[in-house]
Amino acid sequence: MPRIETVFRLFVASPSDVAEERSIVDEVVNEMNLTWSKHFRVRVETVRWETHAFPAIGEDAQSVINRQIDDEYDIFLGVLWTRFGKPTLRYGSGTVEEFERAYVRYEAEPSAIRIMFYFKTAPVDPYTLDPEQLKRIGAFRSRLGEKGALYWNFSSREEFATLLRLHLSRQVQELAELAETTGAGKLLENARLALGSSSPDAPESDGSDEEAGLLDLVQQGVSGFESMTEVITELAFGMSAFNTRVLERTKEFELASANAGADPRPLWRAAKAFADDTEAFAARIDQLRPAFASASEATFASLSGAVALSTDFDAADATLRELLANLHVLNAANDETQGMLTGFRDAVTNQPRISAPVNRAKRRLSEALGAFLDEFNRSLNLGRAVEHEIQELIGGWGETSPEESTEP
């Protein structure tokens, strides 16, 4: 049966070094369209110069793209990493020119366009870096702040995909609400009635391939919380046990040092034992890190999906309010854990340089803690993002909820 949908166009602006992120945008949009189209009769169409421009002649290549795209989009999404891009006749790069055109539209009519910008912070081979390109990216990022633009950083594929699900869901929700209030929603409803399809819901599935609903996604998220907590708890026990071993080895050092003049072998044995303990703990942290990363990825993929479905429910539904309360507690606890991990790593780094094996083991443990902290910080960033988006939804419903984080 014919269906009437509201289509919002998403324009992606980025240099060549973030091709993977452009693919992720397509993946997330296709994934979310399954939900939006079925439940809300809304769909997002991705617009890129690679797919929506064709060979032609103009003042320069960017002017051809500008003319053919013609600013006919509702959401602007920009991504930068290490490449600023090639200059145009008017701006420092094509990406910047596309942003400036979008920003002019925003200044003229803020409700006409949504602007989203992301910066990739993943490490890269330093021999491939162009310092001038990085300098220009830094200057542009500063200008974004001066324009009042809130941008987000990400360091992994999974983090970008989850942030995009969250933020794009919110943008589409606001655009859909705007369409309703401006009368477009009534026009769509009249068209549905004329076509004999007055129900806003898609035909029911036979259940054989039913996708997860809000409660399923929230439950998956809660299960993920538990898995993440288990890993952190095991890490905390490991840190406590390691501290106990350090105290024991310190006593052995003191005893061996007192007799080192007569026989230095006990001192070397104590140093080797300490190095072995340190290496073993570093290896255990390396084992825990992928388990935490996997749990975090699954958790926030589920919760970002729940946010996308949340507009199907009204303020009487307590599911998201309960989730927000739990997430607020989790994020507060993770803030403390972050400080604990950072302090522990610093303490390891600042231990005295006793011997070559001990120094190697210390460096190994410091690197393992640093890698775990990177993964933990990504998870903390996503937790804050999910909390913020749910807070915005509930705030829109006029409900009282925990104080939101002010950091992205």
From TrEMBL:
InterPro entries reported for this sequence: DUF4062
One Pfam family matching this protein: DUF4062
Domain DUF4062: 9-102
Protein name per Swiss-Prot or TrEMBL: DUF4062 domain-containing protein
UniProt source species: uncultured Gemmatimonadota bacterium
